[in-house]
Write a structure and sequence with these properties.
165 residues; alpha+beta; six-stranded antiparallel sheet; 4 helices; 21% helix; 32% strand
């Protein structure tokens, strides 16, 4: 299933473990890598100096690992699965940077629901997702598990306190 057929505003009850989606593609530019270095204040030479990156065996400057993780979240968000039903991100686990990301790579996210469970608050549920950031050669460059807190259909019990899990 791809971005064109992904449902919008899923609630806890709509989540089917095993269900998969794939995002649109994003082409990484040198400006993306430089902007991330500026925003994060991480100006390690691997990310800003092509000669240095080449001396370490890379074809060019490489994107920060956290750039890939952030892009995973952004591409997933573009699917609008939880556009108005997300309460919070509860964290990322098992993050692995499998291959470098360089300018010119075309990346997309493969996304799968792994499990779900209700919280003490009947208006909220926890969903665990497995994500893979995949390049144009179909290589996984980054993978992780993400835990999301989303609304249930129990709207009569809704709480406006974000940390009332």
């Amino acid at each position: 299933m791809d971005t064109a057929t992904a449902p919008t505003n899923l609630r806890y009850e709509d989540i089917e473990p095993g269900k998969q989606f794939e995002s649109a593609t994003h082409a990484v530019t040198p400006a993306d890598i430089a902007a991330f270095a500026d925003i994060t204040r991480d100006h390690h030479p691997l990310h800003i100096n092509a000669a240095y990156a080449k001396s370490r065996g890379f074809p060019a400057v490489i994107a920060h690992g956290l750039y890939g993780l952030s892009l995973m979240e952004g591409l997933k968000s573009e699917l609008k699965l939880y556009e108005e039903t997300s309460v919070a991100s509860l964290g990322w686990d098992e993050v692995r940077f499998r291959a470098p990301v360089v300018a010119g790579d075309r990346l997309r996210v493969r996304f799968r629901f792994v499990e779900k469970r209700l919280t003490k608050n009947p208006a909220r549920g926890i969903v665990i997702e497995a994500l893979a950031l995949v390049n144009q050669r179909d290589e996984v460059v980054t993978e992780a598990r993400h835990t999301s807190l989303i609304l249930t259909r129990q709207t009569n019990c809704a709480s406006s306190t974000p940390n009332a899990t």
